[in-house]
Structure formats: structure tokens, C-alpha cells
Amino acid sequence: MKLDRIQIRQFRNLTDIDIRPASRLNLLLGSNGSGKSSLLEAIHYLGFGRSFRSNKHQHVIQHECDAFTVFCQVATEIRSGLLNIGYQRFRNGDSLIKVDGEPQKRISDLVRLLPIQLFTPASVEVISGSPGLRRKFLDWGLFHVEPSYLELSLRYQQVLKQRNALIRQGNLSREGHYWNEILATAGEQIDRLRKVFVEALEPYILRNLSYFLPEFCPEISYHSGWDSSLTLEQALHESKQKDQKYGFTSVGPHKADLRFRIKSVAAQELLSRGQARMLMAALLLAQSQHFQDTRSRGCVFLLDDIGAELDEDKRQAFIEALLNTSAQLFVTAIEKGQIDFVDNYTDKKVFHVEHGQVKEE
Ligand SMILES: Nc1ncnc2c1ncn2[C@@H]1O[C@H](COP(=O)(O)OP(=O)(O)OP(=O)(O)O)[C@@H](O)[C@H]1O
């Protein structure tokens, strides 16, 4: 997949942008506050329906404006010709998604068309932060490679909500059996898909780590979110009292985790911040490689502030490995010196970002 043309209106300090990116490597150069990350953030909206810097849509709409718009023309492997994709978000919370002029009901309709990945200074939180971030990492891959995964997750979330409502109403003992059974069926399916996915992803991660973090060999393990000696239905039954005490369902795939251990110690306890970044780079690269191999599609990869994130040799290796997957890259840096090695690449464009204006070199 390649973004062939990107138009952005009234998004942070980007008033009216219209660029035609290169199909492989795009460098966005500019000083602090010029609008580089905002450009990535606007593209990110198409692949996730949200920002990676703010959870309030209103904050990214340009001051004094009612809405922002991101429009792009996409060359995709899933059909011939260019796909026209538009996303508009209004200050009152409404949004409008259009694919080839047709309004779409769900953001997932858009997300499925645009596999977008992101590496920013905050990505390292996937390693050091809560299990929810690691589940999101896994779910990105599953959503894009396993067609049934979205519906399954939505079903699970719905039933989970029902069970939690029963807990709060004090009705779990009376009606719990029925909901436990449905929740367990969906939950076990999610668990199976995740286990297969982790097993498939692991060789890619380990191969990348042998370069990015050769001094360590982390063990990777997926934890289902309940006692592995029990079925989920049994675990739900056994957790009844605890769930009633705390007011929510304490076992299930919504409590799963992907753990990285080095010499039996949690990786986040042992790795420096720079090393954790390497681990994160290896993980994201693995997602792109696995996605490419299983779906024969490349993704759009956004790399924000690459200079601050990785040493020069790792920066180069990361970008090279991503380009080997046929991903289209958008890389921001304050100055060209941070990524001088890109002079060797041919299919690239350099864009200068200054006070919200973007000019191709
Ligand atoms: N809603 C908004 N409306 C207008 N301008 C905004 C809005 N939100 C942020 N800005 C401005 O837009 C600019 C966004 O800069 P951005 O974060 O994209 O910079 P950057 O080039 O990535 O810088 P850095 O290298 O410091 O990360 C900033 O100058 C910020 O003050």
C-alpha cells in the first residue's frame, strides 16, 4: 500500500497541505514546532481513527476552525486503481469517513484498508507500560492478518460489558452461568488466535533482536489472562467472589499480557531506555515483516523523531529493514544530518516543514 497523495486541512498548525509522497521513503525535516509530527499525526488518523498524542479530537482541530480533514489517494494491493479516502472530524464530536465518496459507518472499515504503524519516543511504553499497551500491539497484527478477529473482539467486549453490569447489579449468582458460557466461548477463541499469532511472530522478533539487541535474548511468552490449568469458563466461575468484591471481571483475554523476560527477569526491569527502544523497534519491524509475508501487502510506517530514538547504525538498519518489507516510510527529523545515510536511497522525497507549510525539496 502506498499513499500517493495526501491533503490535510486545518489540522493543528497545518492549514492547507497537499503533497505527493514517494512510494518508499519520505523525509520530513523541520525545526521544533514546525508541524512534522502533526503531519504524521494526521496520517495516523486514517489508520487508527485517533491521534497518537492526544485523546481529545478537539485539540488537533486548528484553533478557530470547526473541523479538520485528511484526504488521501491510496494505491493498494487489494484492488486496481487509486482508492480515495477521506476523514473529517468536527469540533462537536461528529466524524465523516468516506471511501471513494461512499460514507462509511465504522472507523474499522477505514482502518482495514490502511495498515499503518508508528514508532515514536512514546512507543517504548509498550515495553514499560501496562499490559493493555502490549495487547494493543498484538491486536494490531491480529486485526490486520486475521479477518474474523475484529468481530470476535467486539462480541467479547459486548458480553464482558453485560457480565460487568450483572456484577454491579448483584445478579451474577443468578444469571452468571449463562454469560460465563458465552464469554468463555468468545474468550477462548481470542486466546487461540492470539497464541497462534504470537507463535508466528516470535521468529521474526528473535531474528530482529539478534541484530538490535544482540547482548540479550529475551524469552517471549503470552499469558492468557487466567490460570492456564483451567478453562476460561472454570476460571470465570472461580473468580465469582473476587469479581463481586471488585465490581468487574478479573479474568479473561482482556487481562492477557505479552511478556519479555531476560534471565527470568522482566525485560523492563533490566533494559536501559535505549535498549527498550531497540526491543520496540524489533517488535514493530516484526509486525511489518509478518504482515508483508502473510498478506503480501506493505504497510505505511511512521517514524517520529528518529534521531532521538536510535543510534545512527540502528537508525539505518531499522529503515533498511523496513524498506525491505516494501513499507512506505514517513520519517521526521530536525535536520538532515540525523539521517544522512538516506542519500544512498533512490525512491525518496525530502519535504521541508516550516511554520505549518510543507515544501518538497
Ligand atoms: N489545535 C492547534 N491549532 C493550531 N496550532 C496548533 C494546534 N495544536 C498545536 N499547534 C501548534 O502546531 C505546531 C505543531 O507542531 P508539531 O508538534 O507538529 O511540531 P514538530 O515539527 O513535530 O516539532 P518537534 O520537533 O518539536 O516535535 C506547534 O507549533 C503547536 O504549537
Automatic annotation (TrEMBL):
<dbReference type="InterPro" id="IPR027417">
    <property type="entry name" value="P-loop_NTPase"/>
</dbReference>
<keyword id="KW-0227">DNA damage</keyword>
<feature type="binding site">
    <location>
        <begin position="30"/>
        <end position="37"/>
    </location>
    <ligand>
        <name>ATP</name>
    </ligand>
</feature>
<keyword id="KW-0067">ATP-binding</keyword>
<comment type="function">
    <text>The RecF protein is involved in DNA metabolism; it is required for DNA replication and normal SOS inducibility. RecF binds preferentially to single-stranded, linear DNA. It also seems to bind ATP.</text>
</comment>
<dbReference type="InterPro" id="IPR042174">
    <property type="entry name" value="RecF_2"/>
</dbReference>
<dbReference type="InterPro" id="IPR018078">
    <property type="entry name" value="DNA-binding_RecF_CS"/>
</dbReference>
<dbReference type="GO" id="GO:0000731">
    <property type="term" value="P:DNA synthesis involved in DNA repair"/>
</dbReference>
<dbReference type="GO" id="GO:0003697">
    <property type="term" value="F:single-stranded DNA binding"/>
</dbReference>
<dbReference type="GO" id="GO:0005524">
    <property type="term" value="F:ATP binding"/>
</dbReference>
<dbReference type="InterPro" id="IPR003395">
    <property type="entry name" value="RecF/RecN/SMC_N"/>
</dbReference>
<dbReference type="GO" id="GO:0006302">
    <property type="term" value="P:double-strand break repair"/>
</dbReference>
<keyword id="KW-0963">Cytoplasm</keyword>
<protein>
    <recommendedName>
        <fullName>DNA replication and repair protein RecF</fullName>
    </recommendedName>
</protein>
<comment type="similarity">
    <text>Belongs to the RecF family.</text>
</comment>
<keyword id="KW-0742">SOS response</keyword>
<dbReference type="GO" id="GO:0009432">
    <property type="term" value="P:SOS response"/>
</dbReference>
<keyword id="KW-0547">Nucleotide-binding</keyword>
<dbReference type="InterPro" id="IPR001238">
    <property type="entry name" value="DNA-binding_RecF"/>
</dbReference>
<keyword id="KW-0235">DNA replication</keyword>
<keyword id="KW-0238">DNA-binding</keyword>
<keyword id="KW-0234">DNA repair</keyword>
<dbReference type="Pfam" id="PF02463">
    <property type="entry name" value="SMC_N"/>
</dbReference>
<dbReference type="GO" id="GO:0006260">
    <property type="term" value="P:DNA replication"/>
</dbReference>
<feature type="domain" description="RecF/RecN/SMC N-terminal">
    <location>
        <begin position="3"/>
        <end position="354"/>
    </location>
</feature>
<dbReference type="GO" id="GO:0005737">
    <property type="term" value="C:cytoplasm"/>
</dbReference>
